[in-house]
């Protein structure tokens, strides 16, 4: 697979960088859009096909989903490139209600997406609280699995003020990308990322932010580096640095703990995952 970064600004868009949006091109030909913050749909019109993407959400803070109602408009009403079949949307259990309200004509109504989308939830009865390294015994059991085409998607619970997930995207040949979404430190991150080719990890906080960060919210660069080292990933990409943030400090922090390749995400970057 490869991943095109359509936007990676943390918490809100920056002047030259939309908020979170990552377009995955899978080897079976499908395109999966991972999060959809403000500005992402504009980039998708250049780099992808809004009429044919499947969409997955880590969580539903506006910087990760606010362009979605406009994607619904495209997939229903585009005169020549509307959705030709139902695609898949996977997100928190509240996604159908939350995004349905955001797409409706009146606050008391909920838009029903079932004409264009098969809506599924990451939440599953067997999603466990205890981190277990992702391997043959935990895949699909500790971390429940969904499929989009030939791609397997695994979720683990994140630590964040709203229902949030970390996501592992895996091809049949084992090529794997893990996305932290937004999360505070949790053992699930290194567990889910165990042995992954690429860890796309938020580091909202750099060195300038040390000491006074709100709890249960985000990671620092050092915490991202610790998770990458513990998981033994092949490559670390730091993302979700806000416009007022400290990207170089986050990068230095990650490098203190992780000695593999690490870099900052940037708009337009294309990342090849696996061979
Ligand atoms: Zn965010
Ligand atoms: Zn968030």
TrEMBL record:
Start and end of every Metallo-beta-lactamase domain?
30-240
Any one GO MF annotation of this record:
3'-tRNA processing endoribonuclease activity
Q: Which CDD domains does the annotation name? A: RNaseZ_short-form-like_MBL-fold
Report what the protein is called.
Answer: MBL fold metallo-hydrolase
* Gene3D superfamilies associated with the record: Ribonuclease Z/Hydroxyacylglutathione hydrolase-like
Entry superkingdom: Bacteria
Biological source species: Corynebacterium kalidii
């Amino acid at each position: 697979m490869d991943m095109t970064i359509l936007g990676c600004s943390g918490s809100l868009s920056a002047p030259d960088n939309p908020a979170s949006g990552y377009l995955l091109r899978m080897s079976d030909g499908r395109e999966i859009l991972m999060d959809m913050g403000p500005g992402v749909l504009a980039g998708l019109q250049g780099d992808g096909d809004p009429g044919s993407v499947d969409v997955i959400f880590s969580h539903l803070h506006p910087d990760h989903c606010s362009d979605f109602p406009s994607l619904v408009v495209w997939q229903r009403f585009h005169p020549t490139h509307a959705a030709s079949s139902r695609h898949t949307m996977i997100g928190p259990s509240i996604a159908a209600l939350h995004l349905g309200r955001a797409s409706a004509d009146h606050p008391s109504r909920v838009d029903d997406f079932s004409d264009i989308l098969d809506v599924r939830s990451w939440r599953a009865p067997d999603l466990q609280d205890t981190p277990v390294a992702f391997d043959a015994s935990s895949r699909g059991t500790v971390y429940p699995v969904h499929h989009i085409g030939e791609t397997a998607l695994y979720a683990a619970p994140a630590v964040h003020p709203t229902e949030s997930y970390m996501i592992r995207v895996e091809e049949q040949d084992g090529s794997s990308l893990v996305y932290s979404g937004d999360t505070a430190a949790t053992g699930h991150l290194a567990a889910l990322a165990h042995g992954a080719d690429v860890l796309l990890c938020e580091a909202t906080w750099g060195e300038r932010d040390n000491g006074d960060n709100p709890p249960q919210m985000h990671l620092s660069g050092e915490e991202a580096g610790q998770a990458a080292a513990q998981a033994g990933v092949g490559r670390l990409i730091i993302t979700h640095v806000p416009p007022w943030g400290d990207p170089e400090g986050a990068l230095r922090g990650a490098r203190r703990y992780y000695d593999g390749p690490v870099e900052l995400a940037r708009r337009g970057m294309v990342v090849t995952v696996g061979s």
